[in-house]
Amino acid sequence: xxxxxxxxxxxxxxxxxxxxxxxxxxxxxxxxxxxxxxxxxxxxxxxxxxxxxxxxxxxxxxxxxxxxxxxxxxxxxxxxxxxxxxxxxxxxxxxxxxxxxxxxxxxxxxxxxxxxxxxxxxxxxxxxxxxxxxxxxxxxxxxxxxxxxxxxxxxxxxxxxxxxxxxxxxxxxxxxxxxxxxxxxxxxxxxxxxxxxxxxxxxxxxxxxxxxxxxxxxxxxxxxxxxxxxxxxxxxxxxxxxxxxxxxxxxxxxxxxxxxxxxxxxxxxxxxxxxxxxxxxxxxxxxxxxxxxxxxxxxxxxxxxxxxxxxxxxxxxxxxxxxxxxxxxxxxxxxxxxxxxxxxxxxxxxxxxxxxxxxxxxxxxxxxxxxxxxxxxxxxxxxxxxxxxxxxxxxxxxxxxxxxxx
Length: 406
Prior knowledge:
Number of strands: 14
Number of domains: 2
Radius of gyration: 25 Å
Distance between the termini: 78 Å
Structural class: alpha/beta
Number of helices: 12
CATH class of the largest domain: Alpha Beta
Oligomer: single chain
Helix content: 25-40%
CATH architecture of the largest domain: Alpha-Beta Complex
Order of helices and strands: EHEHEHHEHEHEEEEEHEEHHHEEHH
CATH superfamily of the largest domain: Argininosuccinate synthetase, chain A, domain 2
């Protein structure tokens, strides 16, 4: 390592997961960067068993303190659900699992830094990825004085293989090997996989990699039917049982994952400019977004649906690029939430071997009127009116023919 320079900050709050990168960073901040005190902060956003033994590991690696906060309800209620109300999906496939988790983590990092008297925060995002932007834009939006330390932009390590060697040399246990060097990120909405054999977009992911979903070919041979209840655009119940946001997402993760729903393999466009291949498991979120869109189909006016659909790419890009706490995202959220007042009712979904279908929907605010839509005799719609409607709409198509001088 390079000769130690005077540290820019003596007390630092580190976003700590116990994985390869942040384990090395914790050690590096103490031994190479020269920090006097590093507070490891772990945001519980639904990592499940990954939190076991985390505090002990952090303290052994050099942390002065390890703070773990259960943010699962806040994450689901204040970040996942607003994105679902917006039908947010990036480049048509990615449900923004990592993108939505970063701002809530960074928000609490800022809070802890203030409480603990730290002058800097640190993260394990690389200089190639999107997470560095998400962490740092959130910090900038919430605190004008905090310094952000990004070791991947400062140290001399150039690869994760070098990190693995450093971990072995310093007795730091990490859940990554040269043989299986996947970089993963897990929360209540999803788990992502990058790196290793996945860096070749032609390679099919190995089945033993997946954690939240069963192979669709091995899913149950009997379809599963479930009913999701909505109130003002938010899912509130599954099969009639009321649940908190985090409870509901866990339940859908289990049901959808058991039926092989929610796998996505994409090559996405990173904010920094390069393409990146990622494999994601988002079982509950996939069903939730699908059900929400179908709830809107019966409760929203055609032009509102069209307007919302036109805004999806813009909203998703804001979130993906790290602008959760930007004025434009907040303004757009206000517009979107205004459309959700009557998105209330129930949607019945059928899950079967990786597929899902809507088989029923109902709402006290339904705009579906059988007396208008019926193919049988009705007394409310004059079919002859359609002739004039078509002629008026076709006028602009006919005018060029009248003006053709050839």
